[in-house]
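Here is an idea for our session: we take a single protein and study its fold together. Start from the sequence, derive the backbone structure tokens from it, and show both lines together. Once you have written the record down, we can walk along the chain together:
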Amino acid sequence: MSFAALKMMHWATGVEHCATGFITHPSSDSLLPAAPIHGDDPDSEWPQPPPSKVFAPLPDLVLTAGNVLELYAVRIQEEDSRSSRLSGDPPSDSKRGGVMDGISGACLELICHYRLHGNVISMAILSLGNDGGHRRRDSIIVAFQDAKLSVLEYDDSIHGLRTSSMHCFEGPEWQHLKRGREIFARGPLVHVDPLGRCGGVLLYDCQMLILKAAQAGYGLVADEEIHGSGSAIAVRVESSYVIGLRDLDMKHIKDFIFINGYIEPVMVILHEKELTWAGSISWKHHTCMISALSINTTLKQHPLIWSAFNLPHDAYKLLAVPSPIGGVLVICANSIHYHSQSVSCALGLNDLFVMDESSHDMPKSHIKVELDAANATWLSNDVAMFSTKTGELLLVTLVYDGRIVRRLELSKSRASVLTSAITTIGTLFFFLGSRLGDSLLVQYSSDVASSGSTSANGKDEGTDIEGDAPFAKRLRRSSSDGLHDGSGEELSFYTLAPTSTESNQAKNFSFAVRDSLINVGPIKDFSYGLRANADPNASGSAKQSNYELVCCSGHGKNGALCVLQQSIRPELITEVELPGCKGIWTVYHKSTRSHSMDSSKTVVEDDEFHAYLIISLENRTMVLETADLLGEVTENVDYYVQGSTIAAGNLFGRRRVVQIYARGARILDGAYMTQEVSFGANSDSNATLDNPAVCSVSIADPYVLLRMTDGSIQLLIGDPETCTVSKNVPMIFEKPVGLVSSCTLYHDKGPEPWLRKTSTDAWLSTGVSEAVVGSDGPLHDQGDIYCIICYESGTLEFYEVPGFKCVFTVDKFASGISHLVDACVRETTHNLQNVKDGDEQVKETVQNIKVMELSMHKWAGQHACPFLFAILTDGTVLCYHAYLYEGHENTRKTDGQFSTDIEVDVGSISTSRLRNLRFVRVFLESLTREESSGGKFSQRITVFKNIGGCQGLFLAGSRPAWFMVCRERLRIHPQLCDGAIVAFTVLHNVNCNHGLIYVTSQGFLKICQLPSALNYDNYWPVQKIPLKGTPHQVTYFAEKNLYALIISVPILKPLKNVLSCLVDQEASQQLEHDNLSSEEMHRSYAVDEFEVRILEPEKSGGPWETRGVIHMQSYENALTVRMVSLFNTSTKENETLLAIGTAYVQGEDVAARGRILLFTMGKSNDNNQNWAVEVYSKELKGAISALASLQGHLLIASGPKIILHTWSGTELNGVAFFDAPLYVMSLNIVKNFILLGDIHKSIYFLSWKEQGAQLSLLAKDFGSLNCFATEFLIDGTTLSLVVSDDQKNIQIFYYAPKMVESWKGQKLLPRAEFHVGAHVTKFLRLQMLPTSADRPVVSGADKPNRFALLFGTLDGSLGCIAPLEESTFRRLHMLQKKLVDAVPHLCGLNPRSFRQFQHNGKAHRPGPDNIVDCELLCHYEMLPLERQLEIAQLVGTTRSQILTNLNDLNLSTSFL
């Protein structure tokens, strides 16, 4: 492998930072009612009854996970009497937790997400405070390593974030800030003033950067314009300057914060005057202090106004107390201190707290807790909530009188997830962000209890506890929520006793979990095993979907096995052979008597079974009844069965079925035809002799849109009263206007159709809903219907139906521009369509690409916006998400200016145009492009509303994929298991509940259901299996389909037992603990107990079965578990055994020891219970940290030695050894070669020679590298060595003894190096898949014996390193260089600097740049077509060649 590509396949999910702010709307927006949860209400058009409760506008939630930044809105659903009538909504997570404060549910909805070229180190929201009078939005300040800052604001016009300012303090001109240092304890830390006047950033541990915010009226937009225009402007940073904290005699800064209640911004800094250490802690323990500086940004002055000394050495965090109290809380590991300018008080948290000599007696909490590594937020102005390192929630109440805090009180609340960040969202919710478990959105409610009703021990609060009990019960998820994670992390939110026992400010808090974001990190290890529903006969890429990745993730009580599958394999119910199938449809049949149902019909509608299955073959049509059994009724029905069917669907509220075939259409009531329409010459006077046949069909009740083979269109208009249709050629198409390349109907449903809001006269228009009202009242599907047409010229137009008035136009739609804007809104900002006229080749290519298929749909959800999909002739899939933008230009154009041509524009065009409608292009991350086929058109997109509780669309074709819509976000999951799929439809009947039918290109019709155990709201479908312990390592035993897993669970033990183990028993020392009292000796202490569990996957996708548990001895840690194949020298046979390596952890005074254990796996005949039988156990010197089997021998890393053993069936005998430097992290074997990774001394390359029975060192890396994981990479005949390190880099080395630089072969030479941005903990070598099966040109990519490395990281991301041909590498590398400048990068980050090797100040010679970054290359497909062609020309290649290379890389690495 000389060249490689690094490709991320699953992005980070562990939330590291979270913050809330009014990013997309100002806080002074009018108070908004909550969304009633009855969905599409059929009974009311628009006067709505007044909502029962009005909620203040909620701020948005900003999350970061690794280099991923996401912006969410919190959508609340109020309690509603009609809540039982969810119309077609799939079972969702948002109703979890019962009703509280009039809210029955809430969920997080994605607004936008970005993958940045840098990891977010710190984040804060720049806000003008909560005075409510301003129309300013908040901005996001994000900080990156080493000293880069970007200020982001939300831009309505692009429906996303943009960078408003960038601040960089790196490079030669800022070198003096480092004061000669290269390594720093942490990256930049950002905090902002509560009133938004300035922000502070701690750089290089001792420099304070002050960011001055622009005052209102001084920004880029004048103040009047802010109030006059439709949207608000965000807070911006005006200037910045640096304060040297060393000059103020502050050396060791731990934290800083801005506090409330001062006229100027006041910054409080927590710093340590003099450092202490463990040896001097007994006499030097109060070394910290806080200093308050008043920041004057105009004069750049910062006088010290007050300070406090003698704070404990373990103080680590500051928390600003909200107004009106003010002041600051200093958080220490064993105490909490409150300080303000005039008063201070403190609270000891446990017995480890040491009192300062000078201070008076300090009150102690009756609850013993430790607060190190805690996160905190404010639930109200006097109650702070802490999340501890054990996942407990604690409430700290400030008991105050006026503005003077008298004392602090601590109370326990609930147990929750282990958090990495926590923030309050408005006054209703808080969010617990976690790197170790799923992140939770929790609603909280407080009620103040009067002092009279609260007794000292809270016994009288029985009624409150009773009132809360149902919520706690409801938190145990209902069955419909079973697919969300099953990890039960929030099950421990119990009811709550009162928080304060004496004061009259006692508050009672109740909680309800409303939503959770799944997290699969940190991935410590993973294994590659067979799925429960694997197909043994599969081959090629279909075989890959037999496998799944079983990952060790989480920690402590959030520990879980995450089962990840990149592609979906539906669970088969039945299959039949059906050659020559062209299309399948299922239809409903509702008899007329059931039409006038009562108001409960919407519930019935979602659960109504299908009546008929229509199958279109080459030259006939089959009709089947979808009752209990699929019985063919082709002979007994009036369907057109003599030829193939083009489409079928329901009309008139499911009372009729419409069937369209090439020359006509039939309307059927059940099995009986009620009307037939033909498209022949006799019916149409102006028809040509060669009658055009129907080519494609779109149905939107009561209209049917037909596109004919000659590029014209016809419309069938239904009459709901008579249930008949009439043929109609829209007026606008009677004269030729250009050939139609594709068209579709879009039904904008609901009592308030979404597109109507985008019209300039939205308050006037009533749409066309009157047209569909029959004599027996309005139909249930109210709303507007639009016809979307794309012409061969590339123009896209929206028409109202049936009037066919053009309401929206976009030129050059097929180019794939980033934003679609109505052509009448003459905007300069998005004029991306300009193309250079001179280039004929570019123009020709652009003209050849047409839109083959269109689809637009809005899925269920109160705040849902429609998606628009288009498939181009070259196989590209375009996806756009609609949004509403009321621009300044629109407002002024219609109100202010009265020039004549503008007036005409307004009068004739824009009155009902969708001027405020815009679309933003959505990146389809894991979709593989289909090679364009010159064959006949076939419909590929099928929309579904409920398949196994999911909604979205299915894309058929040679690379089928599922598009799931979750939280207004598209999740794309490919389906590889059956190859190409020619037809797809939904099926809901007795035997197949909300299932599906598809037909493969081999001619098999399969009836399936989606696997219910998986959660599809993730980059890959995932199933979480909770373990209630920390998983460390997993290995797979393929023969018996078993997993062996190391788990540790903390167990409480008395202190005397713990201390006794720290003594070397052999030396018979006596432990001296005279200074400990007997009470302290009996205090319990948590110790991790290790075990190896044997797990068997459940066939039905349920919880996994534990088949056996191997317990370790006390204080023995299992370090490694591996399946090894050993050659038994007695029986001369190979045996597969489970090998476990352990270490006794007994402190530094006891010599290190470990055990090697060997087990046989599987069911023994005599005893069904015993799944693992021990066959060998031996104690060795040193910890056994790694194991591997080498040509039938067992290689054991024991301390700093590796020893090779032979196996006699009863004994291990050492035959060779090698002295490693310090501690072996990993061992990898290929043939007789060994790759060894050391904890500090990089990698060693060894070989084993059977003749002389010796392990010899071939070469090593002479640098110092802290290894995390190692593996061999095989590319044909080339062997490379890959290693990941603690600085989040990956390096690739090779062995070349003949090269001069290798010092006669002693030194490994670098082949490539790369910064991943996450700690890589495991590599897995997998054979790359062939890509040219469907292409005649055999490329070098299909070399045999070519492997890629799949890797997992600690932030929950997965990726792969794949070898590349040199020609492909050169092409993509040139493209990568161009894209650095051609693509705008959010936050102004440079992709090249992000991917440079990070050496953390150590000497490092830069290695070759032989890896391309697919994270940057994927932006190429998102560029407009003209820009793609232009860049390809600059690179010296063609667009199709680049897309083929990227596609091949996708195909060859579709491993799961």
About this structure: Residues 1366-1382 form the longest helix (17 residues). The CA atoms of residues 884 and 917 lie 5 Å apart. The first strand starts at residue 4 and ends at 10.
